[in-house]
């Protein structure tokens, strides 16, 4: 946008300088055309730059308004124009009638330039407002994102502690294994909770431990297949999105005792990571899925990639497609 306005400013300066030269020829300013054009170009360029300086300063100021810009530009234009006219009157020894024509011509240039800079003012002002609104939206999404992550960590910790207490009463050996895995997962959750995105490789490592912990909780075998090359391990995704997907399916399988859960993670078109899980025979969580997918999209709104999040459910399998984030 700023580059386009700069190009337009140059064209306006050239156009106005040509008009000033034509006006000078018509009124009979006795000087060479080249020097007349050079003077006209420098005058138009100077008044354009003066207007641009006021646009930049007023737009940056918190209390800057269009009226403030108009006032300062009008004063600066009047003072600069008066100095130039006085210089021409002394240097070229022009008659009073020609001086009046020159004043009208230069005043017209100042007025046209002021109108142009007024348009630039509103373009810059609206651009700044959009940037502020975008930043506020990003801050809101970041706070919502952090709140959602904290909620997930709290729920995960609460459920894990309850399961650990029950497991200690039944089998202390398995309980020790669960505590070790739980410690590792909680360490990862705490390390990544303030991160905007994490490496896919680190998230997949946490997925392995999370599935091993879920095997103990659900008392059933989970088959995890990571079908992707290590080249994608350095790509990024929002933290804990896999945990959301797996939690959603683990809750479905909680009531399907004895049924093996199959999970496959693979890359699609080099831009998406897909999590494919097997569906239990009787899926009773269709209403929950809508809220679940909306939470996923909320996480991706920070990266303007919410539209890339999608889900697909068949009779036997459930797919969640998540965009990779280049970071």
Secondary-structure blueprint of this entry?
Layout (H helix, E strand, L loop, with lengths): L1 H26 L5 H28 L5 H27 L3 H75 L1 H21 L5 E2 H19 L3 E6 L8 E2 L3 H13 L7 E8 L3 E7 L7 H15 L9 E4 L3 E7 L4
What would you say this structure looks like, in words?
There is one protein chain. This protein has 327 residues and is an alpha+beta fold. It has two domains: 2-133, no CATH class; 171-323, 2-Layer Sandwich (Heat Shock Protein 90), CATH 3.30.565. Helices cover 69% and strands 11% of the residues. A five-stranded mixed sheet has the order 2-4-5-7-6, with helices on one face. A two-stranded antiparallel ribbon has the order 1-3. α5 (172-192) packs antiparallel against α6 and α6 (200-218) runs parallel beside α7 (241-253). It starts with a helix and ends with a strand.
Strand order within the widest sheet? 2-4-5-7-6
CATH architecture classification name of the largest domain? 2-Layer Sandwich
Helix content: 55-70%
SS strand fraction: 5-15%
Computed CA radius of gyration, to the nearest angstrom: 34 Å
Number of domains: 2
Summarize the main sheet.
5 strands, mixed
Shape: rod-shaped
Q: What name does CATH use for the topology of the largest domain?
A: Heat Shock Protein 90
Structural class: alpha+beta
| First and last CA, distance | 25 Å
């Amino acid at each position: 946008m700023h580059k386009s306005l700069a190009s337009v400013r140059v064209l306006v300066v050239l156009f106005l300088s040509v008009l000033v030269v034509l006006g000078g020829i018509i009124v009979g300013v006795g000087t060479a055309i080249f020097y007349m054009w050079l003077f006209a170009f420098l005058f138009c360029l100077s008044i354009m730059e003066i207007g641009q300086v006021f646009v930049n300063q007023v737009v940056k100021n918190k209390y800057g308004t269009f009226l403030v810009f108009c006032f300062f530009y009008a004063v600066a234009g009047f003072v600069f124009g008066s100095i130039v006219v006085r210089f021409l009157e002394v240097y070229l020894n022009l008659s009073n009638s020609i001086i009046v024509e020159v004043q009208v011509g230069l005043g017209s240039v100042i007025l046209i330039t002021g109108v142009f800079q007024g348009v630039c003012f509103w373009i810059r002002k609206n651009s700044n407002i959009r940037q502020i609104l975008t930043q506020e939206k990003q801050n809101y999404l970041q706070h919502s994102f952090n709140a959602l992550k904290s909620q997930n960590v709290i729920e995960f910790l609460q459920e894990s502690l309850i399961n650990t207490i029950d497991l200690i009463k039944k089998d202390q050996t398995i309980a020790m294994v669960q505590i070790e895995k739980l410690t590792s997962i909680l360490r990862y959750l705490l390390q990544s909770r303030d991160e905007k995105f994490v490496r896919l490789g680190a998230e997949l490592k946490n997925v392995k431990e999370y599935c091993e912990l879920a095997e103990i909780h659900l008392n059933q075998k989970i088959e995890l297949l990571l079908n992707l090359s290590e080249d994608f391990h350095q790509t990024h995704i929002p933290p804990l999105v896999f945990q959301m997907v797996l939690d959603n399916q683990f809750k479905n399988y909680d009531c399907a005792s004895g049924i093996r859960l199959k999970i496959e993670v693979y890359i699609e078109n080099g831009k998406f990571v897909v999590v494919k899980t097997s569906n239990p025979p009787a899926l009773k969580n269709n209403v929950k899925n809508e809220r679940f997918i909306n939470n996923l999209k909320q996480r991706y709104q920070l990266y303007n990639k919410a539209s890339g999040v999608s889900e697909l459910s068949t009779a036997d399998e459930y797919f969640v497609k998540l965009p990779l984030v280049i970071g």
